[in-house]
Structure formats: C-alpha cells, structure tokens
Amino acid sequence: MGTDQLISNPVGGAESGRRKPVRILVADDDESIRRLLEYSLRSAGYDPVVARHGGEAIALSGREFACALIDLKMPEADGLTVLRQLKAQHPDLPVIIISAVGQIREAVSAVKQGAFEFIAKPFELEELLAVVSSALQLGRALRENRELREAVSVPAPDESFVGISPAAERLRQTVRTIGPRDSTVLLTGESGVGKSLLARMIHRASLRAGKPFVTTSCPALPSELLESEMFGHERGAFTGAVNRRIGRFEMASGGTLFLDEIAELPLALQAKLLNVLHDRQFHRVGGSELQTADIRLVAATNADLAEKVDRKEFRADLYYRINVIPLVIPPLRERIEDLPLLAEQVLAKGAAAEGREPLRLSPGALDAMSHYSWPGNIRELQNVLERASAFCGGSQIRPEDLPEEINRTPRTVVHPDPKHPVVPQLGGWALEDVERLCLEQTLVLCGGNKVAAARSLGVTEKTVYNKIARLGLR
Questions:
Q1: What is the pTM of this model?
Q2: Fold designation for 3-142
Q3: Lowest mean pLDDT among 3-7, 14-18, 101-105
C-alpha cells in the first residue's frame, strides 16, 4: 500500500476537538513509517511525539501519554522491552504494537504481556485510527476508574514525609500544627516533590480523618468536563448525561478535597470555585437543588500563582482565598540527605508488592545518586529505582544498574591546591550544582571555617550559613 493511500483519508476523532491535543508516543526505526504515522496522527487531531528507536522511546517513557504506537523490531531496545518499560511506569497506558506480517507470534506475545492490540503492516489508515480511538477510550476508562478508587481511598497509616533533613522535620511539624484546623492549604513545589502525599498527611491529621479524601487533577480532565466532575450533573444536563452523577465536592462531603495543579483550572471555573468556597453551596450542572459543600480544601501547584495572577491567567481573589496557609515543599536536591531513607522506603514498597526481599543500594550507587540533581524529584527517584530493580542481577543495586545520566554526574569533591588548581569541566552543569561544588571546596580549603569561607567567597557569613542550609550541605 502506498503512502498516498494512507494519508489521503485523515480521520478525526472525539479527541481532535479538544483544546489540548491528545499526546501519543510513536516509536519506529523506519523513517518513512515514522513520518507517515506522525503526519496521519497530526492530521487526525492528535499530538504525536516520535522516537527513532527503542532507546529513545524508553528515554521518553517518563512523560505522560494517552496512547503509544510501538514497532516490534527496533535497535537499542525492541518493542517488547519498550512495552514492559511503559507498562511499569504507566499501568493504564494502552500500547499498540506495530508488527510485520511474519511477526504475528511475537505480536501475540506482546498482547499477552499487556499490549492493547497489534496491527500488522501494511495497514489502512482508517484501521489504524480506529484502533487508536478504541485504545484511547480504554485508557480513559482505566484512568477514571483508578482516579475514582484513589479519590475515595483512605490514606495509609504509615504514609509520612520521610527524611532526616530540617526541611522534612519542619514539614512534619507544620502538618501536625495545621492538621486540626479547617483552614485552606496551598501546597507549592516542583513536580514530583510529594504534594499529594503531604495533602493526605494533612487530611489524616485533621478532625475529618474518618471521612473521604477526594482528589481531582485539574489538567487530567478536558476543560468541558471539569465542571461536571467537580460539581456533578443531573440527567439530561448535556449530551451524554444519561444518569445523575455526583461530583467530587459531594464525594468529599465531610472530608477533604484535594485539587492538584489548580493553576490549570480554566478561568470560568475559577469564578465558580470562588463562589462555592465563599458560600459553601453549589448546584449540580443542570440542577436546581442547592447542595452543601462541607469540605476542607487543599490545593497544590508547581506554578508561580502570583505570577499567573499578574498575567491575568489566575484570579487574584481566588488566589487570596486558597492561599490561607501556604506550604512550600523543597525539591529533593535541597534535602539530599533524605535520599537514603527515601530510597529504602521505595525499595521496601516494591519488594512488598512483589513478595520478595528488598534490594539495597551499593555504596557506589548511593554515591552516584547523592550527586545527581533529581529534576523529577521523588517521582523520578521512584522510576529510577523501579527500573534499576528490574535490571539488577543480585541483592544490591550497583552504579551500572542506574541510568546513564546519573552515572555521568561528577561524584568526587575536588580538594583545591592554590599552587596547582584543578578546574573541573562545568559545561552543562546546573548553576545550583556549580554553587554547591564551589561552596564545598571553599569550606574544605578553609577547614570548615565559615568566616574564612565567607571572606574567600566575597560574601557575608550569614550568606554562607544560608547557602549551607539551602543546599543541604553538612
């Protein structure tokens, strides 16, 4: 079948009308097929992200996708390896395997290992898009079911913000202090730092602990469905509303409602949320009966809400309403001394889920991980350890079991000699890592004397102490 035949019938789907196109991972080492898939999916209203081989697909596996199209035979990592990696990180992700005619047995094996479906080359465009549409519907249903289970789940009694750092202890103490109050809490911090965990801890420490803890991820739902998800709807309120449905506010009645990534809430819905928080009442979509909003609100964002207010992207009055008790969660790189305990916790949970003894980090692996900047924070740590556990051949995770980017991080502190200075190669380093290395070396050179270090660096002694605390130096 020729290229012209494939691209002459672009077929859109329900997903193509959304404001944010659905992101689909496409991995194929054949450039012509790859470009064809990319063009066809884009023409149908999707947002394809392409990988030239299995290695690139695995490198992209940490990102969020609604669906994946993976070729069975690729260099660096074959389709089955990529499938296992994707399913390990995103159990709800539907993966479609693309196979040649002679690879049907391997394709069937992929389906047994969790692939949604396989499609053999050559294929009709209508067939491909129909399979993609079905996969997206399944993925959406799986995510909704999981979110509903998590929404009304009771926080585990052993969930805690693990760590020995002053920042971790300060957060635990703050949770104990604010927990019994009913004030609204705004959690801020980079993606993956543990905002959801802290929200659950606040609920568990509150007087509402015996009631539901309900979560809503604002960017995870289409904007046209958010209002219905939050406030519910009556039968016939809109096309497809065949039954009455209660929203997250009613699910959380008496308990805590956690709005994750609240910065992504559309402006129109921000106004309604503000009214509900003020009046503690609302109507279901299409309904006339007044409902009571008996909830405690915990919101979270990784965006600078004050900046979004200045840009008119977030309502100032809503910002002031939710920013009653602000709580900033530091990134992992600023409390790196917590990494051994966090890693131990992650490895213990993984072992318990699989019914085996926990793996341990070798000294070399711990050293490498302690010098990595962790841009994805604790979520990245969990993914790294899960991946390393899969490839580990013994009872210890070694440096060679870790991703290449962690092993590339320089791990030794240079002890400078004024007569023979050693200049490390700093190209590509984060500025914060350069600052940390400079301060570490200066303190070594000055024998730990902060006054001498401040004089050497041309800053005040207070600045040195502040940087030591911020960078987590000991």
A1: 0.59
A2: Rossmann fold (3.40.50)
A3: 3-7
